[in-house]
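Running this now, will post back.
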Amino acid sequence: MIEEPAAGCPVDPDFDPLDAAYLADPVAVLRRNPPEHRAIFFAPKLGHYVVTDYAEADYIFRHPEVFSAANTQLPLVPLVAEAREILRGEGYRPQPSMVSIDPPAHGRLRGPTARAFTPARVSSMIPTIEATVHELLDVVAETPRFDLVAALAHPLPATVVFALIGVPREDWPQLKSWCGYRTALSWGRPTPEDQIEIATNLAAYRRYIYDLVRTKVDQRADDLASDLLAIHDEAPEQLDVEEIGSILFSLSFAGHETTSGLIGNMLRRLLEDRSRWEEIVARPQLAAAAVDETLRYDTSVPAWRRVTTRSTRLGAVELPEGAKLFLWLVAADRDPTVFADPELFDLHRTDAHRALAFGKGIHYCIGMSLGKTEATLALRALVRRFPDLRLVDGQDLTFHPNISFRGPQALWVERAEGGCSRHRQ
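Update: finished.
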């Protein structure tokens, strides 16, 4: 993984976003970052230039002609031959995803997706989101202690995105299981043995999504897959059926993992300081602000990757063509030149929406509105039904070992002694 850094670029030989200290608390690692590493430094263990400055990260997102997204989803470590063959197997040729391709191909895929993924489509999902939240909370309504991730943060986004796409309900558990493998393969360091298991599951996952699209060619419904097929019907040469499968494969994962982490991180930060939770209980209209501030303060997408298409200057560093960049959003969204008192979780912050959690420019997350809506509705329901909720003392939070997605794997909560759920409304 070690590469030679550009001349004059600071080097941090210890920075590794997959070591235990970073996974436990990336902000603590950031606080130890020396001043001379401000803006950019090189991490030999990662083989990437780490960008910490908000302005530089924002610039990179907005200039895909210089900073390509081609490495965004590439495995962090080389895959063994058997895993590569499994992923290529059975005649299914992996298609590029919107998040990892550059213009002009990017626009050809994003345009139709944006047409199908409209505000009206998101609004139409609100009753489904609200009903799903209440169904999930009904299960734990009389349970004095439960895991909020297992009860709500994990199943809610999965249920919503699968319903949006048009996956039959009976298949949701299987797709939930498959989603976890994608994170490990592209953004973790799986062993060769694990790579084979992961590749086998991902091949089945991709095959399922592509078969679903082919089925819907003749069985249209009120879902995103059918909307994209209708656009395909208008101009088959502009969007083919295989590409629709690629779009839905990406959305079925991204729409699950990122929002699950967002909800888990938000509930952790609100409950760890009782005054925050009680303010939301008293003023549930602040739920949307809590979502925005969580995206800044404890984003579920702590980093993203880019690669230079040509030699270029970034800050004080001359980067060669092919330089791999690690955009450390944890650092950028705590940049004191952009956010006043960045270490403070502030429900009344007026500029939290400037956070880079959803990217910027042409690759700005197309599911942003849906994810924020899910988290907002979930929080409003929680404070209404469980106003006395609190974190279980003494629990050690754990996080999936990967570089790009973050949220607690479990978050145990309990209600005050004698407390009970308020009736659903």
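The chain is about 50% helix and 10% strand. More later if anyone needs it.
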